[in-house]
Every structure is written in structure tokens, then in C-alpha cells.
Amino acid sequence: MRSFRTVSSVLWIWLASAGCGSAAQSSPPPPAQSPAPATTTGTQAPASGTDTVAVVDGEPVTRAALDHAVAPQIAKLDEQAYDIRRQQLDSIISDRLVAAEAKRRGVTPDALIVQEVTGKVAPVTTEDVDKFVAANRSRLRTDPATILPQIKAYLENQRTTERHDAFLAELKAKAKVEVLLKAPVRYRASIDLTDVPVRGPANAAVTIVEFSDFHCPYCRSVQATLTQLLAKYPTQVRLVYKHFPLDDRHPQARRVAEASWCAQRQNKFWEFHDAVYASTPDGSESMISGLATKAGLDMKAFGECLSSGKASSMVQTQIDEGGHYGVDGTPGFFVNGRFLSGAVPLATFTQVVDEELETAKTVR
Questions:
Q1: What domains can be seen in the chain, in order of their start residue?
Q2: Which pTM was predicted?
Q3: Alpha-carbon torsion angle 308, 313, 318, 323, nearest 10
């Protein structure tokens, strides 16, 4: 039976991604620490035991320590395995529902799909294609005139998929479908919140940790969303900023990150942060000096901080931490330890925050 779930891969060529990626900074070693860091967000996956898996110069390496180190990667694999099983299960359920309905009507499954899906999809017009181009022009990576047939095919596939899903929903409503496949326990990263810049109340039920690159355009664009989110949840949500400059994409961003850490030493991080995003991406010394002045910093202390090398060390520590927990592009967010990748929309943040607030009520 034909599947309508596949969306043409060329869509990812036409439309810009929702984040800045980096192949150079993926899968770094875990942070240099044995126990879990002191945190106020998230929990590590439980260790599976204390049995010894290696001995180094008489010192044992326990299974618990090993599990702690690889927990993010294992959790990601568990989630991928679940997604594969769930997608296949949904396909099996759909096929059985369609087959049963086709038998009831005395037609083949393919004939039923033609009757109820493809035969009921409105054709894509030139006007439809033009509207799509107008709405997505800024995100298209090539001249729209050269990919009009692909755009039309994408819109046709989109409409067919929507109708296919609606038809399956009708069949499920009439049948008894019970899904018993259980999702894996949700992994929550234990992000270190020692000495970090925070926006929002200290006792907020939801902590959002943002790993970001000051010169990433998607990090810049998501700032408005974060402002809206904090306004929507003034007492329930707090925002933490962590550094993840992408050296391969934005070679000057690391220096800006270091400068912002020095601004934090003077309790002026957010003033510097806002000044950076209000300016053009530039990591020159003159620009950094201007941003520091605009943020109201003590310039002598600021210069001494930058030259000390402490900022460089702290920024690298945060990069390593983010990479250990699965961040390989920016922005990357952890909502009470739950990972969200890219410049996600307000609706997605709202859904996850609401789930976390509901969980907090249940725990109480």
C-alpha cells in the first residue's frame, strides 16, 4: 500500500534549518568530573549497578560511573529505537484499518485509498505555488523559479498526507485501537547551574537552559520568542544562558562569549547580552569595547578579566558540557533537563513548559 508519510527531502534544500549546526564540535568527552554536578534542573538516568567493569592501577571503574558518562548517548539511542518501533507500529495499525475497511466495502486497499484519499485532494494551482513562494521566500536557498515543479509536488504530497491522516482518524474513531507500546523513561540532563546568568525568579518551577552562539542568526531570532515566553510565565519560568560558540561557522563568536563572561563578573551579563544582539555580528576588539561601554562596565576590570584567560576556560567548559549532553548546533535548550534543538517556536516551548508545570503539580 502506498504511504503518504514521506515528505520530499528537497524541502530541506529549499528551506533554511532552524539552527546553526556544527560538525566540528559534536560528541566531545564528558565534563571532567566523576560525580554528577550540583544542579537545580533535571536528573541523571539511574545507574545500573556498582559492579566493576575495569581496573586501572588498582582503582576500579564501576558500571555506575560508566553509565553516568554515557547516559545522554544511550538515552538518545533508546529514543531513536522507540521512534522506529512507533512509526512501524503506526504503519501496521493503519494498514490493518484500511484493509478491514476495504474488505467491508468489497474493494482492494489501493482502490479504497484512491476513493477516500487521492480522489478527494484538491489539485495544486499556480496561485497555491505563488502563495507558498511568497510566504517562504526569505527561507528559500535557491531561485524559486528553478524549483516550481518540486514546490508543486511538495504541496501535492502535503495535501495528500493531510487527507490520508484525516481518513485514518475516521477509521480509528470507528475501530478499537489500543497502543500498548511504552515510551522509554524521558532522560533529563543534569546541567550545572553554578554561577550562571539567570533571568526570572530563583524559585521558578521550570528552568530553561539555553546553549547559544552570539553570532548565530537563529540564536538572534529566538530571543524574541524567549522574551515572549518569560512574559507569559513571569513567576513559573527562569532562563539560564550558557555558551556554545561554533568556531567553524562563527570564528569571532567565542571572543564575544568570553567578553560576556567578563561582563557577568560585574553583574552586567544581560546588559552585554542585549547589546550584542542589538548590534551586527562583530567580534573585533573595537566592537567588544563599544559593547562593554554600552553595557556600563568598568573597562579596566573588564580588560583585566579578558586578559586573565579565565573567561576562555569557562567558555570551553560550557562547550564541553553542552556537547556531552547532545548539543551539536545552536540554539540548544534544556527545559528542566529535556532537550529541544534549534529555534523552536513559542507554541513548542509553551507545550513543554505546561507539561513541566503539570508534572510539578503532580509531584506536590
A1: 198-363 (3.40.30.10)
A2: 0.70
A3: 150
